[in-house]
Fold this protein.
Amino acid sequence: MKKLKLSFINADGKKTTITPKYVAEDLEAAVVQEAMNKMVGLHLFSKKNVGLYQKISGAKYVETIETPLFEVKD
């Protein structure tokens, strides 16, 4: 399963990320960057009076691989 991690710089100059719960696993970089630019322009999110998503830092897919060891069946 792939997760999309969106990285931003907040108003204090620190890195912050957001991971959308439902996202297509094959988005192109230009589409993701455009959506991130829109988020930056809206200035909707803050925490303790610090704007969270002020500047784009990057985006990446993170893939989780599970390796089952065993399963107990009733």
Remarks:
- The longest strand covers residues 55-63.
- The chain has a mean pLDDT of 93.
